[in-house]
Amino acid sequence: MSEPRRNAGPAVSFQPPDRILMGPGPSQVHARVLAATARPTVGHLDPAFVGMMEDLKVLLRRAFRTENDVTFPVSGPGSLGMEACFVNLVEPGDTVVVCRNGAFGGRMKENAERCGAKVILVDDAWGDPVDPAKVEKALKSAPKIKVLAFVHAETSTGALADAATLCRLAREHGALSIVDAVTSLGGVPVEVDTWGADAVYSGSQKCLSCQPGLSPVTFSARAVEAVKKRKTPVRSWLLDLNLVLAYWSPTGGARTYHHTAPVNALYGLHEALVMLMEEGLEASWARHRLHHEKLVAGLGRLGLSMQVAAPYRLPQLNAVRVPEGVDEAAVRRRLLERYGIEIGAGLGALAGKIWRIGLMGQSCTARHVLLCVDALADTMRG
Amino acid sequence: MSEPRRNAGPAVSFQPPDRILMGPGPSQVHARVLAATARPTVGHLDPAFVGMMEDLKVLLRRAFRTENDVTFPVSGPGSLGMEACFVNLVEPGDTVVVCRNGAFGGRMKENAERCGAKVILVDDAWGDPVDPAKVEKALKSAPKIKVLAFVHAETSTGALADAATLCRLAREHGALSIVDAVTSLGGVPVEVDTWGADAVYSGSQKCLSCQPGLSPVTFSARAVEAVKKRKTPVRSWLLDLNLVLAYWSPTGGARTYHHTAPVNALYGLHEALVMLMEEGLEASWARHRLHHEKLVAGLGRLGLSMQVAAPYRLPQLNAVRVPEGVDEAAVRRRLLERYGIEIGAGLGALAGKIWRIGLMGQSCTARHVLLCVDALADTMRG
């Protein structure tokens, strides 16, 4: 940053450009959700607001397909939701099995280690699904595994994990499961109770098509019990379930102040969930599947192929191989400049090798598919 | 929560009630800021958005009166900003002096302990300012103090600390200072560079009159150096300055993804800061002082007195003694029901003993003062 600007910056309002969001998130936010966020701010303990919080928890339970009492949005991005799961369930000296087949599995490892855990890694190639056989072997490799952690929908690669099987394996081996559902919630089936998952976190800005900044989480009774039985304090004051639930899920006593909730962001999440329920969860999953298939077909006509094998492909996050000799960054730049379309670059092991095309929530329509395929055809020519 | 609602909640949009916000925050949010937040979401790596981020850092430096490079909004509430300061600067085994004269000093102690620090407490009565003589004694009481932590504007009591003196004492004793400026920023002078403060955090929803959910922070070069020299990893992945700065303040290399920034909330903070600069910082401080004096005079005519001695009173957070025999909760309920006015209750040691009347940012006008005094006169009668 150049010196002269430092304390003499422009004090003019910011007007964002007109974009079509087809990257790995944020997805397009509907006008109804934007309008909800702009409603007048009220107090975080206002009786009307507290009523909205209760409705929001109900809506989140429906989205997560769970009866878990402890289901609420963490006041921060998906990475803070991830941290909420790890800091509450993991204590120093615990052993944690982490599945890593992309960037977010790597982030889980980082979190577990910063909680003082011993991590057993189960590595799979970026773009491959998590291999349940390897997970089972890892779960058997140590006497007491506290947690099995895996990413349901790897946003960095577009691969889907078999969450039902992995959560079952965790239970069979007496471990709790932590599941990253940031990109899956609303786009593909997330069945928290059927799976028997213990701690699941998501993000507002993917298939829920809300503004980024909130992380819905849900904890099973078993997980809440484990938090209550901890021998050491939770390392984060803000994320300590023992404290935050006095605000989000008071039992017995009155609701008390913990932190100032992000009031307007919560209006937006509420409206986004109302819209999801109006459409219906199954209808939303079917829509994501349908347009994904159309996108893959369209890309195929351009000679483009997918990174992930068909059975494990996420409909909402399409990892597309960059053809030999194509400058992937130049194509993305031309898409943005000519058409105002944002798609994502590859991360980590797949940097430079793939594009990530999101069909998430409001960004998953026939219009988006058509536009993206045609615009790619044009911009790949130069 | 009653059973039948659980998974069959109402899926209708939420319409907040019409409120006048005169509690301890959130304060009234201006229509311009609400409108900014509702602008279309763009990607967190979009070149236009990145330009806005740079402007936002410039605006925050002006608000904090600092040249600190590392000045940005943490993606969460003020409590997360507090946590960002502690987890980066405090390592297990460090000794930290914490000044506690209200609820938020207590929260600082919690944070320091969860970082593994040995805490030396400097207690003052709730409503009294921090006593620098006690602080000096505490700083001399142990061979190596890593951090002195104090609250500049105690939101729970309305007392102002002498930040210049406390930061100077910290430097003289080779300690870093952590300063809570959640309620002070924009309302009274916050002079980060003049004080020589090392880590300062604030909140969006007080005198900046932005929606709640963001925590502006600033770190001195000395503080950043201390983070780089740590012997142990920062306990929080999301808050680790070594990682988050690759997104907010890349030096040398390209800006890289760390977490998905709360795009729309940042639009709002940017607009709120633009409005603050249009008014001018000094003008904003003077406005808070002026209306505070009018409020104290008006309350005096009702026979109400202030909890905090005049020299230490925060203009933006007025702790008013509840008269003998008055049901304080009933008055607050009547204010809300009859007039839609929110004021705050006392916390902790002052619960039931005070009301907290906020005159923060857009909630600090002649209209607010007049309305509040008249409405209190009415509702105290029954």
Walkthrough of the structure:
The structure is a homodimer of 382-residue chains. With 382 residues, chain A is an alpha/beta fold. Chain A has helices at 31-37, 47-64, 78-89, 103-114, 132-140, 163-172, 192-195, 221-228, 241-248, 263-279, 281-301, 328-339, 366-381; strands spanning 20-21, 70-74, 95-100, 118-123, 147-151, 153-154, 159-160, 176-180, 199-201, 215-219, 317-321, 341-342, 344-345, 354-358. Chain A has two domains: 20-27 and 280-381, Alpha-Beta Complex (Aspartate Aminotransferase, domain 1); 31-276, Aspartate Aminotransferase, domain 2, CATH 3.40.640. A seven-stranded mixed sheet of chain A has the order 2-10-9-8-5-3-4, with helices on both faces. In chain A, strands 11-14-13 form a three-stranded antiparallel sheet, with helices on one face. In chain A, strand 8 (176-180), helix 7 (192-195) and strand 9 form a beta-alpha-beta unit. In chain A, helix 2 (47-64) packs across helix 10 (263-279) and helix 12 (328-339) crosses helix 13. The first copy, chain A, is globular. The model of chain A is unreliable at 1-7 (pLDDT under 50). Chains A and B meet through helix 1, helix 2, helix 3, helix 4 and helix 10 of A and helix 1, helix 2, helix 3, helix 4 and helix 10 of B.
CATH architect. name of the largest domain in chain A = 3-Layer(aba) Sandwich
| Gross morphology of chain A | globular
DSSP strand tally of chain A: 14
Please describe the biggest sheet of chain A, giving its number of strands, its sense, and whether it closes into a barrel.
Answer: 7 strands, mixed
Q: What oligomeric state do these chains adopt? A: homodimer
Low-confidence residue ranges of chain A? 1-7
How would you state the average pLDDT of chain A, rounded?
96
Distance between the termini of chain A: 32 Å
Q: How does the helix and strand content of chain A classify structurally?
A: alpha/beta
Biggest interface goes to: A-B, 92 and 91 residues
Beta-strand proportion of chain A: 5-15%
Helix percent of chain A reads: 40-55%
Identify the CATH homologous superfamily of the largest domain in chain A. Answer: Type I PLP-dependent aspartate aminotransferase-like (Major domain)
